[in-house]
Amino acid sequence: TLNVNHTVDSAQPDDGSEEAPEMLSRPNFEVDLIKSGGKTLSFTCSYVPPEENPEGQEEGLDDLFAIDEVTMFEGDNHGDECYAVAGDILDGYLYDLMMTMLEERGVDNNFAERLSEWCSSYEHSRYINMLEDMEKWTKL
Fold it and tell me: What sign does the CA torsion over 34, 119, 104, 61 have?
């Protein structure tokens, strides 16, 4: 599931220079892993806020996204009655195993970067359409 509304923020803090920072869409997203029997392991993920790299830390070692919630359900029975656990209270080792499982299925930093690029482009086109519609509306 993906929604680009209210997902745009600057990629870098505004340093006060004349040039505006690049605006990126970084929406929350869901990943469903479905077994042939119909059982689904579902992850709700969000982008980690961009932060300065601590001194001495190598570039690219941090995850671009985090697991916010994990739930499991059968068929289409996904609702409030399904137990869900917050990602930040999972055991660290289990959390790492789940991140590795996502990475093995192509949901990794590269995926997150490409998703953000696509969403940024899509959101920008939707923004332009809205501005054009507003202009037409004001001329009615």
Answer: negative
Which residues lie across from 120 on neighbouring strands?
Answer: none
Q: What is the pTM of this model?
A: 0.80
d(CA 8, CA 76): 31
**Cβ 21 vs Cβ 136: under 8 Å:** no
Q: Which residues contact 59 (CB under 8 A, 6 or more apart)?
A: 53
Terminal CA-CA length for the chain? 36
Sheet holding 65-74, edge to edge: 29-34, 39-47, 65-74, 84-86
d(CA 69, CA 50): 20
- In this predicted model, what pLDDT tens digit does every residue of 31-64 receive, in sequence order? 999 998 889 999 999 999 876 444 445 555 589 9
Enter the DSSP assignment of 35. Answer: -
> Which tokens sit at 130?
């809205």
The strand ranges marked E within 1-140 are 8-10, 23-25, 29-34, 39-47, 65-74, 84-86
**pLDDT greater than 50 at residue 107:** yes
